[in-house]
Amino acid sequence: MHPYESRLLHAIDEIRESPFCDVMYEEIGPGGTGRNPAGIFELMARDGFPLTEKIKEAYFPYRFMSVHWNSTDPELPLVGDFKVMNISASSEEGLRNLDDHAWYESDKALLSELSILDDASRGGSGQLTTMRFLPGVSSPEIWYLDRFHTFVKLDMDYRDYLDNLIITKGVIGWQYLFADVSLGADEFGNTLDDLRTMLRVFPEEFPNHDYAPLLERLEARL
Fold first, then answer.
1. Which contiguous run of DSSP H or E holds residue 89?
2. What residues does 154 pair with on adjacent strands?
3. CA distance 84 to 130
4. Distance CA 213, CA 26 (A)
5. Regarding beta strands 141-145 and 127-132, do their DSSP bridges make them parallel or antiparallel, or are they unpaired?
6. pLDDT digits (tens, 9 = 90+) for 24-57
7. In the chain, which ranges are E strands?
8. Is 88 helix (H, G, I), strand (E, B) or coil?
9. Sheet (strand 64-71) strand order
10. What residue ranges do the domains of the chain occupy?
11. Which of 32, 119, 154, 214 could lock onto 83 through a cystine, CB 3.0 to 4.6 A?
């Protein structure tokens, strides 16, 4: 079993087994344990995307892994939602229906270069995390699009994204901890509340993970 296959499956088990999380939906996409990704990486390199070894190590053999959960405590309302793609599937999954929204033409040029990494729309939030695969670039940029149709570049790569998805369990808005934004602004009020709840509850709920770096990131953005 590939290391990140094992880690993601374990994270899903943690969600399922936690009394704090009520799983509303769960799905593992097509694929299978034991698949050798060397041919996939060679094909991507021939197509102009020579991935770093760090990103190759984060490969998992299923097209996607997906979970949507709600908190069981009405006093601590949280929602987690992710449908994270493996690196090959993400490179093939471009954004659709760009003309359905009032993007500036300059925005459309960037958005046309993005492909879906993580779709958090099942819970009704509408967020997408995307990657920007540019020819010859070995580590695609990570961009976060929210339900207000704004987007921001994240300070992380694909493997970093999986590492933090595993820790945050897909709590809506966790990506803003890696964005150059002020979470104290009014527009982030609900997101800030959710992140504070996550960082208060999760260290006790999931004690095998270190939440101190995320707390530092939150404080740095206030």
1. helix 87-92
2. 142, 179
3. 10
4. 28
5. antiparallel
6. 999 999 988 777 899 999 999 999 999 999 999 9
7. 21-28, 64-71, 79-85, 114-120, 127-132, 141-145, 151-154
8. helix
9. 21-28, 64-71, 79-85, 114-120, 127-132, 141-145, 151-154
10. 3-181
11. 119
